[in-house]
Specification:
The complex is a heterodimer of chains A (308) and B (215). Helix content of chain A is 45%, strand content 22%. The longest helix of chain A has 23 residues. Chain A folds into two domains: 122 residues, Beta-Lactamase, CATH 3.30.450; 166 residues, 2-Layer Sandwich (Alpha-Beta Plaits). Chain A is of the alpha+beta class and 308 residues long. Chain A contains eleven helices and twelve strands. With 215 residues, chain B is α+β, with helices and mostly antiparallel strands. The chains are: A alpha+beta (308), B alpha+beta (215). Chains A and B meet through helix 5, strand 3 and helix 11 of A and helix 1, helix 5, strand 4 and helix 6 of B.
């Protein structure tokens, strides 16, 4: 005997804060919950037996029909995020609802008929926050495109340093010059941000950038690769010279501190160094190698320098 | 030396299961597209993700400096197995999507092709993976929405930039390459599956159990 009855299931179906409907193989609506009634101002009795594309005339029929075909034949759930289609279902209640939709294959266990359950989740507030963040990131990106420096630390930004490195790799390959790339990443930096906040986190990044800038060697460049990751390249130095320099900087960073209301914050960093060899085709490869060496430093316990 | 090694028997079993599931997927997809579909599995390996960029470049159907489009889709099966599927195709193949779907340029604008491309990629990835994972798990596999992660870069740039797996990046990854070809409309793309480091030992245990039961 079933533990729940149909009335209870219907009650749940109508109370859930997600739009749910069931369509049959001819795209006709069979079930429609209260969430959809509230937002479309149409009752289950109004839409029952009607074609989905007649009830929502703005739906992209060709594309959605292809999706339905796939869901029915492959029996896999298909999802559409608000990022891909922000307003797939347009509702009549006047509001703008950003949606995450799912198309779930359902087979009637008795008749073996094929249905699709469509769920519509209102993600407007999450989407709005994400869009605002995206806008800020876009502004920052366009600022980065007209500038060569990272606004927080004052050192070169990723775009500039990577372009400069691309040129250096080309020169090194043409003239057989020495070139080394160093990448380093601050250890447990997320904890600094989580425990002390982003303002203190920014001061830590600035402290690290200043520490490195104060000890730069000639013919080297320094930039922020992203987040708490930094990149340098050295032209004309032996790998030993670069390794010695990295050791000094590693110690210097770990011995200093950034003061905060909660006391001094100590930070360490993990370093990786890769040397240019004629087999290396471009900047992508040498950066990858330095990155691999850096993660080996992390794996070995952090706060160390590793050669690729 | 990888941190997780599969025995020959485990590899053979996995290869066999992949071949069986690809056979099912090819049949399903052929029905969906009304064309004969070829799915070949030229590579299945556990590799350190340190070498993944070069592996992708070497095994791709496309040239290293060819501009490609990448669609990536994450999946998991009750979080006991997690990974990512990726489709790589070039712009010439993109043009074959309309005939494959029996559409013409009058039906949809060039802007809309990406929507169809995403849909098609989602169907390819989910069909192949669902059939494979069904061999291991009773519960259905959950797929995130597919996303176009690159459309302006060449294969080399994509291989070095797009396939990052965070900190797991430098662990071992089960990597499988599938060639997806529909001759009639000249549609061909790379289909990669990556199963992350954490899931590998889980997968190995299941393979061992199947082997034990069959012996």
């Amino acid at each position: 005997m079933s533990l729940v009855n149909l009335k209870l299931l219907t009650e749940m179906f109508n109370k859930i804060d997600i739009g749910m409907m069931l369509i049959n193989e001819d795209d006709k609506i069979c079930l429609w919950n209260s969430f959809l009634t509230r937002h479309s101002l149409k009752l289950q009795t109004d839409v029952s037996g009607q074609n989905l594309f007649d009830v929502f005339p703005s739906l992209p029929k060709l594309w959605l029909s292809m999706k339905f075909k796939g869901v029915r034949q492959l029996q896999n759930t298909s999802k559409v995020s608000w990022e891909q289609r922000p307003l797939l279902f347009e509702f009549d209640n006047g509001g703008t609802m950003m949606q995450n939709c799912s198309f779930i294959p359902v087979i009637d266990p008795e008749t073996k008929e094929n249905y699709i359950c469509i769920t519509i989740q209102d993600v407007s507030s999450h989407a709005k926050d994400k869009l605002e963040l995206k806008e800020i990131l876009l502004i920052n990106k366009s600022l980065e495109e007209i500038s060569n420096t990272d606004p927080l630390t004052g050192i070169f930004n990723r775009r500039y340093i990577c372009e400069a490195l691309e040129e250096q790799v080309l020169k090194a390959s043409e003239r057989n010059l020495k070139l080394a790339v160093l990448m380093f990443d601050l250890d447990y930096f997320k904890l600094v941000n989580d425990n002390y906040g982003h303002i203190v986190g920014d001061r830590v990044l600035k402290y690290v950038a200043d520490t490195v800038c104060g000890s730069m060697m000639k013919n080297s460049s320094f930039g922020r690769y992203g987040g708490e990751e930094f990149i340098l390249f050295f032209s004309g130095y032996s790998i030993r010279d670069v390794q010695d320099w990295a050791e000094k900087i590693r110690i210097k960073i770990s011995e200093g501190a950034v003061d905060s209301r909660e006391g001094d914050i100590h930070i360490t960093a993990s370093f990786g160094i890769a040397q240019y060899t004629p087999e290396i085709k471009d900047d992508l490869e040498i950066i990858h190698n330095a990155d691999v060496a850096m993660y080996r430093s992390k794996e070995k316990g952090r706060n160390r320098v590793t050669l690729y | 030396m990888n941190s997780i090694e599969f025995s020959h028997e485990e590899y053979d079993l996995l290869t066999e299961l992949i071949n069986v599931s690809m056979g099912k997927s090819a049949a399903e997809l052929a029905k969906l597209f009304n064309h004969f579909v070829k799915l070949k599995v030229p590579a299945l390996n556990i590799e350190s993700s340190e070498v993944l960029p070069e592996t992708i470049i070497k095994s791709s159907l496309f040239g290293e400096l060819e501009k490609v489009i990448v669609i990536q889709q994450k999946f998991h099966n009750d979080y006991s197995l997690k990974g990512e599927g990726a489709i790589i195709l070039n712009y010439k193949t993109r043009q074959t999507i309309l005939p494959l779907l029996e559409l013409t340029e009058d039906d949809i604008g060039s802007e809309e092709i990406n929507d169809f491309l995403l849909e098609l990629s989602g169907q390819l990835i989910s069909s192949c993976l669902s059939n494979l994972l069904m061999e291991f798990f009773k519960s259905p596999t959950t797929f995130e929405s597919p996303a176009i992660t690159s459309k302006e870069e060449n294969l080399r740039q994509v291989a070095y930039k797009s396939f990052e797996f965070g900190y797991q990046q430098y662990g071992d990854i089960l990597y499988s390459k599938i060639d997806f070809i529909i001759d009639v409309v000249n549609f061909q793309c790379d289909l990669f599956f990556f199963i992350d480091t954490e899931s590998l030992s889980h997968l190995q245990k299941i393979l061992q159990k199947i082997l034990e039961e069959s012996s």
